[in-house]
Every structure is written in structure tokens, then in C-alpha cells.
Amino acid sequence: MKAFASWLVHGAVPMILARLGLGTVYVMLAVHKVLEPIEFLKAVRDYDMFPLDPPYLMNLTVVALPWVEITAALLLIFGFWLRASAVLLLVMTAVFTVAVTVRAFDEMAIQGLPLCEVAFDCGCGQGIVFFCSKFAENVGLCALALLVAVSRSRRFTLEALRRSA
């Protein structure tokens, strides 16, 4: 078990797979938000996390958040500022997971359904999703971000090229 943990933290393969997987997922989800800002705004409004009046904070979030996600994801893919990008995506995913969970419990109470049968548009660009599958996906994304954040491998990254120059 210790050898496996060491391989995860120091190995190039887990780091590359985690970087590319996490980065690709976040680019795809963020591009949908950029292309469909009104749908994203409606989904964000459904969480009741921002005041409706004045709408500046909610509007700023809808406009800026996808670009933050794209920037962090591209930094991961290309291998620059890995720890910072991974921690940023980890925090954003964790906050989003809490918001989705609160909303799922509210929907469960309103609809009278078991938790895993609760489905709604979470605003992530995937349309209507079931809570349990979205929760599992978010836990997986958090695990990938955590792996990138703690990994010591810098093979095949721009950081490694910069350091060797």
C-alpha cells in the first residue's frame, strides 16, 4: 500500500492522467457556460446563493466563473502553476458540491423522492442530472484535484521546461 501511495504522489503517469482528465472536464463544462450564459444564470439563480437585487454579484459570477475555470483547466493541461490551479478547482468543486447537496435535500423534501432519484439542472452544463451521480462525479473531480495538488511529479509540464532552461 505504501508503494502505491508513493507511486501516486511521485509518479508521472497518475499526475499526467489527473491533469489531463481534470483539465479536459473543466474546459468542456466551462465552454458550455460561456456559450449559454442565460441558462447558466438561471441555474445559478436557482441556488439562492446571491441576492437578486442588486444582481451585480450574481451577474459577475456568471460572467467570470467559466473563464476562471477555463484558465485553471488550461494551466493544468499545459502544466503551469499546477498546485495553485488544482487547489482553486478543488475549492470551487467542494463549494459547488455543498451547494448541490443542499439543493438536492431541498428538492427531496419538496418532491418527496428518495435522494438518489432527485434530479435537476445543476448549472454545470450537463443539463438535468441525478444528485447521486453528480455527487459521485464531484467527489472524483475533487480526488483528481487533490492528487494534482499533492503530487511531486513535474514531468511533461511547462514548469519543468522553465526550470531546466
Largest sheet descriptor: 2 strands, antiparallel
Mean pLDDT: 89
Order of strands, widest sheet:
1-2
The low-pLDDT segments are none
Strand content: under 5%
Instruction: Give the SSE order as H and E letters.
Output: HHHHHEEHH
Amount of helix: over 70%
Care to count the β-strands?
2
Number of domains: 1
User: Count the helices. How many?
Assistant: 7
Distance between the termini: 36 Å
Helix/strand structural class: mainly alpha
Shape: globular
Radius of gyration: 18 Å
Question: Which features characterize this protein?
Answer:
7 helices, mainly alpha, 75% helix, 165 residues, globular
Give a structural overview.
- This protein has one domain.
- About 75% of the residues lie in helices and about 5% in strands.
- The protein contains 7 helices and 2 strands, in the order αααααββαα.
- The chain has helices at about 1-10, 10-35, 35-45, 55-80, 80-110, 130-150, 160-165, and strands at about 120, 130.
- Strand 1 (about 120) and strand 2 (about 130) form a beta hairpin.
- It starts with a helix and ends with a helix.
- The model has no long low-confidence stretch (mean pLDDT about 90).
